[in-house]
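User: Can you predict the 3D structure of Flagellar P-ring protein? Sequence below.
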Amino acid sequence: MKLFFRLFTLVAVLAMSLADVAPAWALTSRIKDIASLQAGRDNQLIGYGLIVGLQGTGDGFRSSPFTEQSMRAMLQNLGISTQGGQSNAKNTAAVMVTANLPPFASPGSRIDVTVSSLGDATSLRGGTLVMTSLSGADGQIYAVAQGAAIVSGFQAQGQAATVTEGVTTAGRVPGGAIIERELPSRFKDSVNLVLQLRNPDFSTAIRIADIVNGYASARFGGPVAEAKDSQEVVIQKPRTADLTRLMADIENLIVETDTPAKVVINERTGTIVIGSDVRVSPVAVSYGTLTVQVTETPQIIQPEPFSRGVTAVQPQTDIAAEQTGGRVAIIDGPDLRTLVAGLNNIGVKPDGIIAILQGIKSAGALQAELVLQ
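Assistant: Sure. Here are the predicted structure tokens for Flagellar P-ring protein:
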């Protein structure tokens, strides 16, 4: 019995200790998870191409004349004469081809591309993208795309009904583009590393610089990092350091992150996101709604038999008004859990909570930034 009591006491002490340090764990992240390398950003590519092999769901040449012009130009480049003939087959569609060129991509590697209909095609399912060059913002060709398009949506149509699920005029070609040109800049040629925070914050930027300087002082004998502003942290390359190995060591350092208090509201979807640092000063809230329901039930009045009367419609309207809510609740949110519990106790729906949060912000009791989307 004594042994069981001691084990129970030990488990309780461990649970209390873990509860005390759990918030510290939740606020720490690796540098690679909260910041990105400026020299390692993506580059956008775009191109114009044709998708062939559609089952009569392609562009109509009358409403999309550029599709026919593109098809004729493609056939002429292949040595096929198209003069004097006109095709009405709807098995071809003009598409815009887009892709993201990842950082440090080398020639010969493959990337995914996205195809989107440019004309009046109804579906790209079953089509094949023919060879399309993808250019960057500088006009240079960096990749060439070709392959079968994968479309998640589908469409079924009959004489009197049509069923459509998802988007049938856009799809992807997995691994459909081959990189042909290397990016001009190289990682090894950089003289420093610039880290960009995904969520700009001065406190987090200063902590990153301090953690990196602590690592550099122990490894290279001096500080190398400086926080320029809330988003950028510049790291100078030590003379004896390899840039790739230096970045690999820095991105795995653990940093305690900090975020400003925000409440994000999307009134169209009724979505409410409340940050963990949001505080609400003591405030009294009353929420009530007035519902007015109007019901029209017209009645048909028939004339007597063998009379000269006519059939008439007599309108009948029923109006009912109902008022709900009206309870007054005191909301005091020293932490997120108390705030959510106080809002739930009022018993309103998300649209009502949105109105309450806006009213609390107008009253000056919401100690956070209110973001409306």
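Residues 2-26 form the longest helix (25 residues). Helices lie at 2-26, 31-34, 65-77, 202-220, 243-250, 336-346, 350-362.
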